[in-house]
Structure formats: C-alpha cells, structure tokens
Amino acid sequence: FCPNLSAISTKLKLAHNVAGVTFLAFGNGAPDVFSAVVAFSDPRTAGLAIGALFGAGIFVTTIVAGGIAIVRPFTTASRPFLRDAIFYMVAVFLTFVALYFEKVTLAEALSYIGLYIFYVLTVVVSTWLHKRQRRENLASSAPTEPELPRDSEDGDSSSFSGGDYREEYQPLLPLEESTLQILTHSMNPLDYRKWRRKPCYWRVLKVFKLPVELLLLLTVPVVDPDREDQNWKRPLNCLHLVTAPVVCVLTLKSGEYGFYKIQAVFPVWGVVILTGALLAVIVFCTTRNEEPPRYHIIFAFLGFLVSAMWINAAATEVVNILRTLGVVFRLSNTVLGLTLLAWGNSIGDTFSDLTMARQGYPRMAFSACFGGIIFNMLVGVGLGCLLQMTNTKLVVKLDSDGLLVWILAGALGLSLVFSFLAVPAQCFHLSRGYGCCLIVYYLAFLTVALLTEFRVIRLSTFS
C-alpha cells in the first residue's frame, strides 16, 4: 500500500498533506466506509455503523496520532492541522444532530457528501496558494543568500532512503534472468535468508500468512518508486492485468455483478478475463524485462483499486460476524462497533500511518489521521444513507443505544477539543508526552464505555 501511495503522489506531484487527505485517507478509510455502507443497508445494524465510525475516530485521533508523535516527534503545519480539526468537528456535530433527531434526511445525507467535497477543494486550493506564495518569496529574495532547506506545510524535506526496499545481498555483476525465472521469484512470498534467521514463532506465523500473501502477490500490483526498477516484474504484472479485474468484479457486492450473465449466456467474469488476457498479451509484447514502461504508474492505480475491493469483501464478512457475536453475547451494536469493528478497520490506519512516520513522513501520516476520519464520517454516513434511500423511503432511522452513544460522541468531541487547544499551546510541536496523553485518554474512554455497556454506569447513577 505505502509504495503504491508514494508512486501515485510522486507522479501526480501531490503535496504531502494533499496525498494524506486524498489517497492515503481513501486507503485507510476504505474499511470504515465499506463497513458503514454495509451496516446502513440494514436498519438493525445502523447503530453498528455509528459506533464503528465514532470508535474509529477516537482510536485514530488518540492511539494512531499519539503513536506517530511517540515514534517520531515533529512540528506539524499549523494551518492544515487547524483546518482538519475544524472540518472534523463540523462533521461530528452533523452526526450529533442526526443522532439527536434519530434520523438522516436526504438533504442531510447530501450535505455530508458536499462537505467532504468542499474539504478536499479547500485542501487543494490552500496548498496551491501556499506553493505560489513560497515561489514569490524565493523569487524576491536576494540570489546571493543561501537557500536553506525548509520544512513547509507541504511535507517533510526528508525522503525515503530506499534502504528498506533493497535486496540484502546483491551480486557484484548484474545477472539477466529469464522471463520464467522472474515470474518464479516474484511469486515467491518467502525470503529464505530471513526464514533461517527468524525464531520459531515467526516461522509458524509465516506459514499461516503465506497463502494470503501469495494471493495478494497474484492479484495486487505494487509500484515502488524507491527501487531502481520500480518493482517492475514483466510476467507478473501482465498476470495482474487478468487477475486484478477479476478480483474487482467478484468482490463487488459479493460477486453479484461478476456472475451476471450477458444475454443470459456469457458471464461478466468471462468477459473480464478475455479483456485482461488481451491487454496482458499487448503489454507483454511491447515491453521488456529490464525496463518498466512509461505507463507503469497505471499499475499503481490498479493496485490501489484492488486493495480497496479486498477490503470491501473483508468488511462485509466482518459486519456479518459481528452481528453474530452481538446476538451470542448479547452486546449492543454500538459497543461492537466502537471496539471490535473500530479496531479491525483501524489496523490499516495504524500500520500505514506509523510506517509513513518511521520512513520520514510524519506530516503526511498525521494529515491522514484527520483526513481519513473526515472521509470515514462524511462519506461513510452520507453514502451509506444515500444507498439505503434508493431501496426505502428518503429518511434513514437511527436507533441509538442510549447513554453509550452519547458517551461515544462526547468522548470524540472532547478529544478533538483537547487536540485543538493542546497542539497550538505547544507551538504545534507534537512531543512524546502529548502522544502518551492521547493514549491514556483512549484507555480511560474505553473503560467508561465498557462499564456503561455492562450496566455498572447507568443514567440513574447521575440522577
């Protein structure tokens, strides 16, 4: 995921905060959005969607953001942070109003989508204005003055070192591999040198992961701009042109579109395979093993799309499993959403954002924390409600779970207000102490939420 994101943002010349609130936000927010859309499709699980969106919001703005500050303390850009915090507080307020009236109308659903579009336009325009202002300042400065490296709101001046992506052992003389050898090596998910060095528990875990890793290798193309060949594997990339579209049509809406038969004879997945095979033959005949083609960036977009489709399929199954757990253990949809579903959906945010921070891009990762949850809240609720309105009447009912929902909404709002006040008070420097405070806050919130779910804290306690 991270190499594809880096390739896309580099090719499109996106600033780090723009990449964070668009592509990285979409990738991180895909589990939450797809889960919300699936949950909103059934009125009985609408509370699951609200709990997941609020729970993921608190988790990302505390655990993930605090983890970034602990891993790599840095000074965040002031205007992007304040902008993202304000937009997210507005999104939370809209959801708070919807919960209060226990319904979402067509106008409110459209306002969610419209607010996110306005947010993205604000990010793009403000970044363009900032770049223009910097160019004017550089042009007006004296040419004799040395140009010092600056860390602007566009992102860190540091870049990927590329050391993590290089082979540990490289031959003194380059060896030309045959097409069959390239295909065999690129389809092997196991590094034998690493296997010999790792302990037994790592090997056991690796054995369970190998089938999934092999499946992802065969279906998800990866473009890595930090490698000399950009991870161009000619035979495998040609195979991706067949497997990746098939995954997209078979995972979309549980394969309903993929198994649809054209003229009641030929299935859609068959047409996709034939089209992909034709493209694969064309690419194979017009490229070489040693050099990636000019259109290699298209594989990054394809890999991004296929990853989202895999997440969609997983999210559908996760929602079904959580509904079963809720019935078995008699847990409310809200507590399932803010715990298991929120944690599961936020795994992508946690690993990708912390990886970005360790690789020298803490600002992009921190922007993705807020950009991702803004995307989750606005697009998740807006799109989920709109899709339900196409099947039912133009009003979506929201059945809240009483005190727990208000604790959830209040905790999210309080965490945003805390960051909105604490970060400027620290001159926008995110230290390890700030990160520890966020993690402690989340643990305290989780304790109160679970005590409320198990009836230790009740409304009568406060009356």
UniProtKB/TrEMBL annotation:
Keywords: Antiport, Calcium, Calcium transport, Ion transport, Membrane, Transmembrane, Transmembrane helix, Transport. It comes from Gekko japonicus (Schlegel's Japanese gecko). InterPro entries: CaCA_antiporter, NaCa_Exmemb, NCX_ion-bd_dom_sf. The chain crosses the membrane at residues 18-40, 46-69, 81-101, 113-130, 204-223, 264-285, 297-315, 321-343, 364-383, 403-423, 435-457. The keyword Membrane applies. It is found in: Membrane. It is a multi-pass membrane protein. The keyword Calcium applies. Residues 1-124, 300-450 form the Sodium/calcium exchanger membrane region domain. Coiled coil: none annotated. The gene is SLC8B1. Residues 139-160 are annotated as: Disordered. This is Sodium/potassium/calcium exchanger 6, mitochondrial. Pfam families: Na_Ca_ex.
